[in-house]
UniProtKB/TrEMBL annotation:
Keyword annotations: Membrane, Transmembrane, Transmembrane helix
Matching InterPro entries: FA_desaturase_dom, Fatty_acid_desaturase
Annotated protein name in UniProt: Fatty acid desaturase
Membrane-spanning parts: 143-158
Cellular component GO terms held in the UniProt record: membrane
GO biological process: lipid biosynthetic process
Originating organism: Acerihabitans arboris
Domain Fatty acid desaturase positions: 13-256
Top-level taxon of the source organism: Bacteria
Length: 280
């Protein structure tokens, strides 16, 4: 990350600057995938080490470790039930307008929500939790710290008459990290049997290239992860072939998944236009 920041600052023209900004954004997104492992306490042996590392990994994308952990562990318990809810509320409805989907791809609802939570933390409001009721005070501290770092960096850059905050944080965050993270998270349960009781019915696994699997920190093996949440992410590939035969939703690559989604959306749109013309 330091090399990327140096490259952004050293390059004067915006075009070559896009390369280190892109790499920095990818690092932000990869950090949240690593944070996901820390939530399950499988990144380090120490609970405290998982907490500290998880907080730092989520900071660039403004993701509170304790809030994410509470929501995500509840998601594991509630998967297949009507009250299931994920921390990152990506738009997964097939009939929503394009502008609504774009808003969620760039995670605008998430960032707006983080701003509201920072405001709540400043006002001392309580944070409703789903599992770890004792973590409310820690969540408030994390939002105060994240907000403090974010706004201090923004105001410091503004006071210095520099655009370093925009170039080294906002551009990589909004234009690279957010959409990349959305594209990683979106397939996990999209189009699956939402109320299916078995993880093989309500979750999707994508068997992808080892480099992509490393970048997602094994998140592509999502059926395996929900079946064995205490197993370190780097070991999910080992159990993949044992579970593959039972999976109802399986895809050979992220590209194949998104081709299928786009094809289905195009077909629905074409049918809707046909029906509209017939009614007229």
């Amino acid at each position: 990350m330091a090399i990327c920041i140096y490259g952004i600052l050293a390059l004067e023209h915006w075009l070559p600057r896009l390369f280190p900004q892109g790499l920095l954004g990818l690092a932000f997104a990869h950090g949240v995938e690593l944070q996901h492992q820390a939530l399950h306490h499988t990144g380090f042996r120490s609970r405290r080490a998982n907490h500290y590392a998880g907080f730092l990994l989520g900071l660039p994308m403004l993701v509170s470790y304790s809030a994410y952990r509470d929501s995500h562990l509840f998601h594991h318990q509630a998967l297949g039930r009507p009250d299931d809810e994920e921390f990152f509320k990506h738009d997964k409805t097939s009939g929503s307008p394009l502008r609504h989907k774009v808003k969620h791809i760039f995670m605008l609802p998430h960032f707006y929500c983080q701003l509201l939570k920072f405001t709540d933390a400043c006002k001392g409001r309580a944070f409703p939790l789903k599992i770890a009721a004792g973590d409310a005070a820690m969540i408030r501290k994390e939002y105060l710290l994240m907000g403090g770092v974010f706004f201090t960096a923004a105001l410091g850059s503004l006071a210095a008459g520099s655009d370093i905050f925009i170039q080294c944080w906002l551009v990589p965050l909004f234009f690279v990290a957010a959409p990349v993270h959305s594209l990683i998270e979106f397939p996990e349960h999209y189009g699956c049997d939402r109320f299916g009781a078995r993880v093989f019915d309500n979750t999707r696994t994508i068997h992808t290239h080892p480099i992509i699997s490393w970048f997602t920190n094994g998140n592509n093996y999502h059926v395996e992860h929900h079946a064995l949440p205490s197993l370190p992410m780097e070991q999910l590939a080992w159990v993949h072939h044992q579970m593959k035969g039972e999976m109802r939703y399986y895809c050979h690559s992220y590209a194949a998944f998104y081709r299928q989604v786009i094809s289905q959306a195009w077909t629905r749109r074409r049918h809707a236009k046909t029906n509209s013309h017939q009614e007229k």
